[in-house]
Design a protein that fits this description.
Strand 4 and strand 5 form a beta hairpin. The chain has about 260 residues and is of the alpha+beta class. It contains six helices and 13 strands.
Amino acid sequence: IRKGRIKKILRFLSEDINIFVAGPEGGFPLAGTYNGKHEVQAYLQEYYSRIRIKKFTVHYNLIENNKINSHIQIKGRVRETGKTFDQIFVYCWEIDDAGLIGKLMIFYDTYTFSQAFEAGGSQYVSDIKPPNLEIDPSGVGARDTVLAWSDAFVQGDMETFVDLMSPDILWMLNGNPEIPFCGTFYGQSGALEFLGLLLSTATYGYQDIQDTFEYGNRFDAFVLEEFTCNETGKTIFCPILQSYIVEDGKITEFMSYNDSF
């Protein structure tokens, strides 16, 4: 991937490969759903014709059976604007029975990525990055803690919800800075401020955790969420990748990779 060797990449893909790249389809750079090797090859050709990868660093992987979440930092240059982007991308791979990649979902800060393709402004764009990109393999109980915390939120048990967060939790949501609840929030009070901002603009519908990944003190969840915008009445359906650090039974870091368009 780093070197852009498309023929070699295609060898690792199943014939019916499915790739989902977060972002609104149509008009947004490279976002969409690509089915089969022919469509994926066209996607890769467009990607490398528009982007030169300068740095590709895999920080860590979370593995659950035949599924792998890779947290990757990519620094690249957009050829048409000359801008450099430096972002974390989460590649969610699914391996088929033949040992080939059958499915891939890619989550990242769509707003920052889009800025790299727009003329004008800064020549260097970067997302909010977690300060800790390592794993403590001795950590235990991350899955149980996060699922209990999520259940508490859904059930409206705010006492448990707050208690399962560290007093110093770091809460991060990348996205358009004009959206009130995008940014970095600090401590339990910051997390509650985030929820207040979110729920003042949208009505919560449901949350469905599709897949979970755990290793040591790290936990990832692929989540489907539904909200209704209070101003327009329109329903928002969001596939999201959430990443957590858990220490001593408390969530110390929360990062959500949302499409903010």
